[in-house]
Amino acid sequence: MENNAAILNDKRILIIEDDQDIAQLLLLHLSDIYRTVQVIHNGKAGFEAGLNQAWDVILLDLRLPDMDGLEICKQLRSHHILTPILMLTSKSTELDQVLGFEIGADDYVTKPFRLLELSARIKALLRRNTINEKNSVPETEQHRIRYGKLDLDIDKRKVTIAGIKIELTSREFELLFHFAKSPGRVYSRMELLDSVWGVSHQGYEHTVNSHINRLRNKLSSVLDDKHCIETVWGVGYKLSEDL
Questions:
Q1: Are β-strands 107-110 and 85-89 bridged in parallel, bridged antiparallel, or unpaired?
Q2: From CA 232, how far away is CA 115, in angstroms rounded?
Q3: Of 123, 163, 217, 220, which has the fewest beta carbons less than 10 angstroms from its beta carbon?
C-alpha cells in the first residue's frame, strides 16, 4: 500500500477551471496528495499547458473562456496527447457525456461533485496508467499480438490493421489489447470497467459504451465499416473472430 501511495503521489495534475472557488478548492485538496498541481483559468492557456508540458492527469472544465473544454480535449487528442482527461461540467445529460467521450475524454464528473468521488476517479486513472507502464508486456510475455489483419505492438503501443496504422488514445489501446488477448471472448461492461479502468462502479457503463464506439469507428474505417468489435446483446462485447 505504501509503495502504491508513493507512486500515485509523485504525479503532476493540471486543472483547467475558470471558476475561482472550485479551482482553489481543488488546488488545496489535491496539493496535499500530489507532487505538482497547477491551475489555469483560461481555455487557450490551458490548452498550451496541456500540449507543451507533461502531465499525468488533466482536470478539464467544459465551459471556459476563449476555448471550451470539448475543443481543448479534441485538439489535444488531435496532437496525439494521450494524457488521461477527466471532464468537469455542470451539464449532466447523456448527450453531453457521450460527446465528451467521443472526442477522447477518459472520465466525466458532474458538478456539484464530492471531493472523495473526484479523488477516487483521479486515482483510478493514475493507477491504471501506472500499471500499464510497469507491465507493458502482457502476462503471456508476448511483445506482439497478431490476429487476422490486426497487429498490436505492445512495447511501442502501436496498432495496425492490414498494414495501416491506427491512432488510438491510451484507453482505446488498453481496450483493444484486452480484447485481443482473448479473441471471441465476451466481456460485460462491468468486467471491462474493472479490467481496463481499474474500477467497478455502476453508473459508469456509458464510459465503456462511448469508448467502444470510438474504438470501433476507428478500426472499422480501415475495414470497410466491418465491425471488429461486436455487440453481444444483453451480455457485452467481443473482438470479432473473423478479421
A1: parallel
A2: 36
A3: 163
Q: Which of 191, 214, 55, 54 is nearest to 125 (CA)?
A: 55
Its pTM stands at: 0.60
Give the torsion sign (CA, 178, 88, 102, 231).
Answer: positive
Q: Helix, strand or coil for residue 114? A: coil
Residues 129-172 have pLDDT tens digits of 654 444 333 333 457 888 888 888 887 888 998 888 888 887 88
Amino acid letter, residue 87: M
Give the whole-angstrom CA distance, residue 171 versus residue 95: 21
Walk me through the domains of the chain, giving residue ranges and CATH numbers: 2-134 (3.40.50.2300), 144-239 (1.10.10.10)
> How far is C-alpha 109 from the chain's CA centre?
13
Q: Are 180 and 145 in contact (CB under 8 A)?
A: yes
- Supply the DSSP string of 53-75, one letter for each residue: S--SEEEEESS-SSS-HHHHHHH
What are 69's three cell numbers? 473544454
Say what the pLDDT of residue 139 is: 38
β-bridge pairing 236-239 and 144-147: unpaired
